[in-house]
Design goal:
The protein is mainly alpha-helical. It is built from three helices and no strands. This is CcoQ/FixQ family Cbb3-type cytochrome c oxidase assembly chaperone.
Length: 64
């Protein structure tokens, strides 16, 4: 680990990458949280029953 740390300390501007990674992760986390909160309750109910269906296939709304 010392070898990796030594090389990373010598790279100019390397400290910005963890910050960028954190901002991207946090933004994605907020978007997914917002999406789940705004999701239609009927869709949540349908998805929650997928495991209880006796069919091997995933149920679809528009089955022919």
């Amino acid at each position: 680990m010392k070898l990796v740390r030594h090389y990373l300390e010598n790279i100019a501007g390397i400290e910005v990458y963890p910050i960028i990674s954190f901002v991207l992760f946090f933004t994605l986390f907020l978007f997914i949280t917002w999406y789940v909160i705004k999701m239609d309750k009927d869709v949540i109910e349908e998805v929650s029953n997928y495991a209880l269906d006796e069919n091997d296939e995933m149920p679809h709304k528009n089955q022919s």
